[in-house]
Structure formats: structure tokens, C-alpha cells
Amino acid sequence: MMIKFKLLILVLTMSTVINKMATAENEYTLDTVRETLVRQEDTIVFGLIERSKFPFNSQTYDQNYLQIPGFCGSLVEFVFTNTEIVQAKAGRYKNPEENPFFPENLSLSLVPSYPFTKFLHPGAASININKSLWKMYFHDLLPLFVASGDDGNYAQTAASDLSLLQAISKRVHYGKFVAEVKFRESPQDYEPLIRSKDKEGLMKLLTFKSVEEMVKKRVEKKATLFGQDISLNSSDDSKGKQKFDPSVASKLYEKWVIPLTKEVQVEYLLRRLD
């Protein structure tokens, strides 16, 4: 009787393990990752609109503006660093979808670990291009859509930068999941290129111009819709007026989000067979 009971427990345990593995395998498919990427577009577009409410506010980025003992850097760096420290303690960066901008400053998580799906190859953790995103954001993107000037809302400006940059970072680094899904669907196409370290060949295999054009048009349309002034009065002249240039969203994806996502995918695939 005891032996039968132990066998029953063993069968139930194995069944649970198999079900968890099946769930993990089915959690990420081409359809589910596409749905996630589309939802992330909304967050990024809203982030662009929110940041556009403030002028450039150069003091936010002035290394000499802050006078905080023990800290050297700009206000935006101060906000990013301390926010990430708190979020790390709360367990944010235990999620493989999240990548910090200042990993060297992070503390250990203080909350119980959630059993996130072990879907990615272990080498994925070392792929973090946030330093490049940081430079792109402040040197190239902001001047495209933020008005010059100063309204004194430096903390609010830094908070908007934080939300938008984190959203862009999540979208770009989600390329790891896209690459893993594509690899699992067609390993025979990817393995020869990976073994030969053919970055150019991998980039060609990952590039679908028609899909990229569709994404750019979609984010611009979203920016057009989300960025309109809405009025319940049909005779209101301000109805449909744009408070944000929707072409900025398309340019962001064309010049940076899409190329950098593919860069992450290539870097991930090059580690996939290690």
C-alpha cells in the first residue's frame, strides 16, 4: 500500500513538472510575442506624448546643477539610479524582460523570488544595450520632438524620461524573446549562420521589410489618435488638433527601435549554441 502511495505521489509530481514545462513552452510563440510588442507600442507612444508636455529643461541634464553629498551626476541620473535601486529591491530585475540602465548600482531583491519561465538561453542576461539607448535618447531623440525652453519642472521631466526610456528599453530587449521563438521554429535556418558567426546573414534572416513598414505606420497612426485633443462638442474648433507630431513615433521605430531590436536578436543568437 505504501509503495502504491509513493508511486502515486511520484506520478502526480512528474505530471506537475511536465505541465509547468508545457506552459513555459507555450507562453512564448510568434503570436504572443507579436501581441506583446503591439501593446508595448501603446506605452511608448503615450510616453512620447507625456514627455512632449515639458520643454527641454536643460537643468535636468546639467552635471553641475545638483549639489547632493555623495552623488556626482545630473538630476536625471539621480532619479534613474535611485529609482532602479528601489525597484531592484522590489524584485523588478528578476524578470528577464527587464534590463537596468545602471546595473552596477543595484541591490539584491528583498522580496520572495517569483518562478519566472526559464525560456531564454542563460547567455541572454549578459545582453544589455541600455548605454547605447541612453546616448541615443538624450542626443538624438529628445531634440526631435521636445521644444526648447525651461519651465522649472525638472523632477517631472526626469520622471517622464525614466518612464519613456524604460519602455523603449523593454521593447528593444524583447528582441531576445523574439529571437528565441524564431530559433525554435526554424533551428535548421539559424544554426549554420550561428556556427559561422555570420552576423550579416543573421540580420538578413531576421529582416522583414514589409513587417517593419507596417509597424512604422501603426505607431504613427496610434500617435495621431492618442495625440488628439478630444472634445464632446461637435462644433469645437480644437477637435482633432494635434498636441504631438505623430511622425516622431514612426522615426523612433525606423531609426532606432527596429534596428536596435535586431541588434539584440543577433547578439542573442550568437550565444544561443554556447
TrEMBL record:
This is Chorismate mutase. Pathway: Metabolic intermediate biosynthesis; prephenate biosynthesis; prephenate from chorismate: step 1/1. Residues 154-265 form the Chorismate mutase domain. The lineage of its organism: Eukaryota, Viridiplantae, Streptophyta, Embryophyta, Tracheophyta. GO terms for biological process: amino acid biosynthetic process; aromatic amino acid family biosynthetic process; chorismate metabolic process; prephenate(2-) biosynthetic process. The gene is 11428755. It comes from the Eukaryota. Residues 1-24 form the signal peptide. GO terms for cellular component: cytoplasm. Keywords: Amino-acid biosynthesis, Aromatic amino acid biosynthesis, Isomerase, Signal. It catalyses: chorismate = prephenate. Its EC number is 5.4.99.5. Gene3D superfamilies: Chorismate mutase, AroQ class superfamily, eukaryotic. GO terms for molecular function: chorismate mutase activity; protein homodimerization activity. InterPro entries: Chorismate_II_sf (IPR036263), Chorismate_mutase_AroQ_euk (IPR008238), CM_AroQ_sf_eucaryotic (IPR037039), CM_II_prokaryot (IPR002701). The keyword Amino-acid biosynthesis applies.
